[in-house]
Amino acid sequence: MEIYSMLDIIGILGLPFPKHGESSYYIQCPCCDDPRDARSKHLNINLRKNVYRCPRCGLSGGMFDLYAYYENIPRKNVYNEIRKKMGKLQEPSGTPKKAIPIVSQPVEEIENPIIDVESRHATYSALLSKLNLSSDHRENLRNRGFTDKEIEKLEYKTTPVMGMSSIAKQLRSEGYYLEGVPGFFRKDDGEWTFINEKRGILIPVRDYKGQIQGLQIRRDNTEKRKFRWVSSSDMKDGCKAEGWTHLAGPISEKIILTEGPMKADVIHTLTGITVLAVPGVNTLTQLKLTLEILRKEGLKNVKTAFDMDLLTNYHVQNGFNNLLQLLDDMNFKFGTYIWDPRYKGLDDYIWESLMNKKR
Q1: Following DSSP, what letter does each residue of 122-137 receive, concatenated?
Q2: Which fold has domain 245-359?
Q3: Angle CA(310)–CA(311)–CA(317) in degrees, nearest 5?
Q4: Domain with CATH 3.90.980.10 in the chain
Q5: For residue range 277-324, what is the model confidence (pLDDT) as tens digits?
Q6: Which residues lie closer than 8 Å to 75 by C-beta, 6 or more apart?
Q7: What is the value of pTM for the model shown?
Q8: CATH number for the domain running over 6-109
Q9: 3-state class (DSSP) for residue 2
Q10: CA separation (Å) from 143 to 219, 266, 311, 352?
Q11: Beta strand pairing call for 157-158 and 184-186
């Protein structure tokens, strides 16, 4: 019996192939994407697992299901149809095709692929509009230099402690996507809900257009791993977060590069300077892509401003050196801010300096 793979199927159907080295990629969904919009691609094809899934409309299945859908034939007829077509497509050399064994795995156990940023932004914005900010968290933010008006604009909220299944149901009824949005998942009864995290402040992490890519949590009463991504990767139909960058302020010729979205928001609020944040100095996965986008919009000069433990922590120094190498390789003008080491972050230093001037 011949063994076929998802690559065989997409080749027969004439669907787009992945970039070199990719095992999971997106194409237009034949069910819910507008064929006139080339940017609309929601159907995830997983070559390693030989499955596909659209987090928008729920279209999903194995490679034979994909063939049956596109060719509009009964699934029971797919294997013989593929055999006929593959026989016609054999290479002249007669060299047998290398095939990836079919992985027997229920589709519903597969983690949802992340949905596009526009859909995530809409869902997260609707979620945050249904949440509140506690009085102690508001006071914490005021003590960092934010006004109430700025707090409302940034949409910081307190993590919900109950009622998330009800809110998830509301979001679904209002037409928002929960599939492919980190933080949302299904309970054992099939109902959608949102993660139940430790109490803290929810921080929107925004792209260069101001869209919410994901959420971070600044957790209360903890020193280790104070900031965490909102993620539901280990949950049923959940979705993992990625190491997104965060831009505070409009795109400009010169920016400050720092660590953490809240820190970036504080520095921008206090100085008016545009600030780009990475999750950590050792987390640079998406930084290059962001810098390439910003350069097209006029960015020329990058000033780094990471916490002052950079001077004593070997692991931080190593990550920082990798960052400087990246900036150099991309031909940016760059430099580094150094301040009084009594203040760990640039945000702390600026805020204390402003307070001293008022005294």
Answers
A1: HHHHHHHHT----HHH
A2: Dna Topoisomerase Vi A Subunit; Chain: A, domain 2 (3.40.1360)
A3: 50
A4: 116-241
A5: 998 877 787 899 999 999 999 999 999 999 887 777 777 788 888 899
A6: 64, 65, 68
A7: 0.73
A8: 3.90.580.10
A9: coil
A10: 17, 11, 27, 10
A11: unpaired
